[in-house]
Amino acid sequence: MQREFPAAPLAGVGAVVIHRGRALLVRRGAEPALGQWSIPGGLIELGESLREAVIREVREETGLIVEPVELIELLDRIYEEGSRVRYHYVIADYLCRVTSGELRAGSDAAEARWVEPAAWNSGSTLALDPITTRVIEAGWRRAAQREEKE
Question: Is 123 exposed, middle or buried (0-12, 13-18, 19+ CB in 10 A)?
């Protein structure tokens, strides 16, 4: 499967993990967006369900075991280089809750940490991509709604 300059879009997942009033972020250790902060996630493996992919990716990148709760958004991430498409992902982002594990950076994450809401809002030192910020905020709102119902 060719990630760079692919012949077709690649399918991936992302996880908005909300726990104790904070969101989980990872610093990307590989392209695309090397060195940038984002939510954990990656490509779906052949024969793997979306839910299985979310659980695996979060475990590989952060050491945490999560339960996907609900789909937040399905979106395109297209990175162009000149007139060519360098990367094209179709990503299913899920709201997740932690069930176990201990936070540590692993796999292609250079760093993993819990962050307060101010860390992803405008003016943050983390300089998150606007799409990532939007997805985190949507997950944050849904997590709050779920807590109110419980």
Answer: exposed
Q: Terminal CA-to-CA distance of the chain, rounded, Å? A: 43
What structural domains does the chain harbor? Answer: 10-149 (3.90.79.10)
Would you mind telling me the total number of residues written for the chain in this entry?
150
pLDDT at position 124: 63
What pTM value is reported for the model?
0.91
64-119 pLDDT, tens digit each: 999 999 999 999 999 999 999 999 999 999 999 999 999 999 878 889 999 998 87
In this structure, are residues 53 and 78 in contact, taking their beta carbons and an 8 Å threshold? no
Task: Catalogue the active-site residues.
Answer: 111
Amino acid at 3: R
